[in-house]
Amino acid sequence: MDALKAKYLDRIASAADEAALEEVRLAALGKKGEISLRMRGLGGMEPEARAATGAALNALRDEIDSALRARRAALGDAALDARLADEWLDVTLPARPRRQGTIHPISQVRDEVTAIFADMGFAVAEGPEIESDWYNFDALNIPGHHPARAEMDTFYMHRDPGDPRPPAVLRTHTSPVQIRSMETQGAPIRIICPGRVYRADYDQTHTPNFHQVEGLALDRSLTMANLKWVLEEFFSAYFGTRVKTRFRASHFPFTEPSAEVDIQCSFEGGAVHVGEGDGWLEVLGSGMVHPKVLRAGGIDPHEWQGFAFGMGIDRIAMLKYGIPDLRSFFDSDLRWLRHYGFAALDMPALHTGVAR
Ligand code: DAH
After folding, report:
1. SS3 assignment, position 339
2. I need a labelling partner for 2 at 20 to 30 A (CA). Which of 13, 18, 175, 353 fits?
3. Which residue segment(s) compose the domain that 29 sits in?
């Protein structure tokens, strides 16, 4: 009994980790452990010897059991101490730098434009980028044979012969949203529609995908004067300085009369400065909405009239933020995005363009 006790207490004391300790436990107290086997052997003993040996074995088992527990707790404490010594963290160290993404200038300018027009009571309307040729052309008074249709370098969606659906295009301008909004909202109406548009054209000043913002205001007595005021208010807020506009007579199928609008600027030293000098830069097309277009949108031209305009977002972004090349907007060059992009907290503010 003494030898057994010495043997196991010694092995327990020298077990280096929990696995070794578990081995000792199995060897002594497991189902086939030495002490368990001896206890099973009690049955074949004389009653007196059995009582004495049984009591001694029970005591031994209890002693080994509590030695195991004590050793396990000690090993656990030691392991924890070792981890604590090993795995410490200096919470005063500066965090590892993480690159933040930036807001693309197009997104930023779209938000600025939206904020300024919202302040003048214009809501944002949207339409699909894959558009039926009815909304993109016919409803806007651009019939099949009209040269504007050919001029627009339209992307047509593929159609199998016999496809019963009407022909569809990638919208060439945001003007179809005028019709959709008239249909769903009726008159009076005051909306802008910013969005992507597409034309099969690629050179230094054209990309197949670009951005426009459409404007539409209908009421009982709106005139070109209201259009001019709205646009001058807009440009002055957007560029953060008083900007004059110049209306040039023009032609669009969806407006009558039509005007192309230039903003005042100087071209000194190769840089464009909006709102100063005596130069002019074309930035949008506009006019009084054609009666046929009103009718296509389900609106009675004898009761309602108003103005519309369409402006290139990319163009006014380049002008405000000094971005020289249109194509760079679509390159996804990270260095360019870091340079021209905006922090998420550069929220558009009225009359200053943007708070920076
Ligand atoms: N849709 C024209 C374009 O893409 C721009 C435009 C001109 C829109 C006159 C208008 C407008 O609403 O009245 O070139």
Report:
1. helix
2. 18
3. 2-86
> Is residue 214 within 6 Å of ligand 1 at its C-beta?
yes
98 in any annotated domain: no
Going from the Cα of 8 to the center of ligand 1, the distance in angstroms, rounded, reads 95
The rounded distance, in Å, linking the Cα atoms of 356 and 352 is 9
Q: Same domain, yes or no, for 202 and 271?
A: yes
| Residue 353 resides in a domain | no
Distance of CA 309 from the midpoint of ligand 1 (Å): 6
* Of the candidates 211, 131, 126, the residue with the CA atom closest to the CA atom of residue 170: 131
Nearest to 237 by CA among 120, 342, 104: 120
Mean pLDDT of successive 10-residue stretches along the chain, which has 356 residues: 91 91 93 91 88 91 94 91 90 88 95 96 97 96 84 88 90 98 98 97 91 98 97 95 95 97 89 90 96 98 98 95 92 94 81 47
In three-state secondary structure terms, 196 is strand
Task: Name the residue among 202, 60, 194, 65 with its Cα closest to residue 126.
Answer: 194
Residue 30 lies inside a defined structural domain of this protein: yes
Cβ 304 vs Cβ 188: under 8 Å: yes
Same domain, 44 and 166: no
Q: Ligand 1 center to residue 291 CA distance, Å?
A: 16
Which residue(s) pair with 281 in the sheet? 263
Whether the model pTM is above 0.85: no
Residue with tokens 């981890």: 83
Q: Would the CB of 309 count as within 6 Å of ligand 1?
A: yes
Q: Are residues 193 and 263 in the same domain?
A: yes
In angstroms, the Cα distances linking 250 to 145, 231, 254, 257, 316 are 20, 17, 12, 8, 21
If asked whether residues 149 and 18 sit together in one domain, one would say no
Report which secondary-structure segment, H or E, holds 210: strand 209-219
Specify whether the CB–CB gap between 165 and 279 falls below 8 A.
no
